[in-house]
Amino acid sequence: MRLVGSSPAALERALSRYRDLDLTYPERGATAGPLPAGYHRVARRAGLGHGRAAFERAAGALLTWQAQRGAGLRLAATAPEASTGVTVVMCAGPGPFGVLAPCRVVWTLQEPDRRGFAYGTLPDHPVRGEESFVVERDSDGGVWLDIVAFSRPNGGLPTLGGPVGRQVQRVLTDRYLDAMRELASR
After folding, report:
1. pTM for this prediction
2. Where residue 46 sits, what CATH number does that domain have?
């Protein structure tokens, strides 16, 4: 776990440090299938709206990091849109400093009625694991967001704060869902 400045310039400096580092867990891409054992798991599904326009708004927002920004995270990424191999550093916390959460996109999904991505953790992230975000339009026109994650603490301090870390993950997941509902309705 690492504290960093949360200004755009500080996040760009942090981003350059993580561009070539390896993921912190071996089960790369596992959010696309059966989740691995030995991790805390999250699976949430929420309605975002109805119709093609709501789907396109939600998918566009999701792939351009708007769920994370809408959840209150400050970020810098190596590309404006999520695609496999893109590195993103996010910062959570009030004020000029926050907890760093560096990740790399490990898979993307581009189908007519399903779009999304997953990112995996890099060194200094408070947890080790992966999180996926998929927007889907069902056969009735309903638009849904699925968030799936598996994680475990990365280091002594996150391990000691286990229940607190899981609560932070729940809060962030709720914020992602709230942000995406609002973005899909615009």
Report:
1. 0.91
2. 3.30.530.20
